[in-house]
Write a structure and sequence with these properties.
Oligomer: single chain
Low-confidence stretches: none
Distance between the termini: 25 Å
Strand content: 15-25%
Structural class: alpha/beta
Length: 191
Amino acid sequence: MTEIDPRLLALLAAPDEDREAAYDLIDGVVHHIEVSFRNYRDHATELYALAPIRHLTLRDGDATDVAAFFGSKEISRLKSILIHSAPVTDAELEILALSPHPTELRWLTFYEGRATFAGLRSMAESLSLERLVHLDPGRESEGVRKAYYTDWDGSIADSHFPKTGELLERWYGPIPWLIPDGPDAPDRFAV
């Protein structure tokens, strides 16, 4: 079994004493952590010094936390981000889209996303998000993703492309993150 640096475990738990440290090992090294926005904000430099974090799950924040995170330089280290228990609206997506830092980001999910066409359009126009291949903007967002329905043998029987996604693709050409549910959908930790 791989030994995890006790300092890292302490940082992952604090100040959330009621939660155990949440992390995943990839090839015996911590590459994914789950922390609160507060914990990440207070300890990001130390966390990155102790582990080559490439996948991050953030929770328990507000719009100010999300905006500050999306504008931070630390986002340049990440390949995947999952945000839950924090709202993500067009305003935060525009900050992310205009940031020069998320150039390695390939996978992005928001559980409480409230994106409209304006926020999704800013992402489609972003030069920093060209490597993004998966976007789940949240259940309260406008429909954007192509959905596939499979037949009994696993072949694609039908697909549905919401108007928002169809319009974005018409304006900007093929956008990989519009089709995360397709047969070639990437695994979060494989990106």
